Task: inverse folding
């Protein structure tokens, strides 16, 4: 019985030390003076726009191939650069549409 009594004290002390350590870590993390600010390079910040541009170019290439082999009628597809004039989608992306 004495063993279990000591075990309870040891477990209580360990849990209390764990709680104190957690509070110390919480205060350390929430302290605004120690935050690390990482500035991203400009290339990474422009990545979503570049991805949109790449996807649009792939989409236009597919539509131009469809136009060339006759899958769609001329003027039937809104985004086909051969039907509408070159690079309309790219211009829309550059305008932010
Ligand atoms: Zn077309």
Result:
């Amino acid at each position: 019985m004495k063993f279990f009594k000591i075990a309870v004290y040891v477990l209580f002390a360990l849990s209390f030390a764990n709680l104190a350590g957690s509070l110390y870590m919480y205060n350390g993390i929430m302290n605004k003076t120690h935050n690390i600010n990482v500035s991203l390079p400009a290339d990474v910040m422009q990545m979503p726009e570049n991805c949109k541009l790449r996807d649009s170019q792939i989409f236009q290439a597919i539509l131009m191939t469809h136009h060339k082999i006759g899958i769609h009628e001329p003027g039937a597809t809104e985004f086909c650069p051969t039907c509408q004039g070159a690079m309309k989608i790219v211009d829309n992306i550059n305008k932010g549409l």
Observations:
- The mean pLDDT is 85.
- DSSP finds five helices and no strands in the chain.
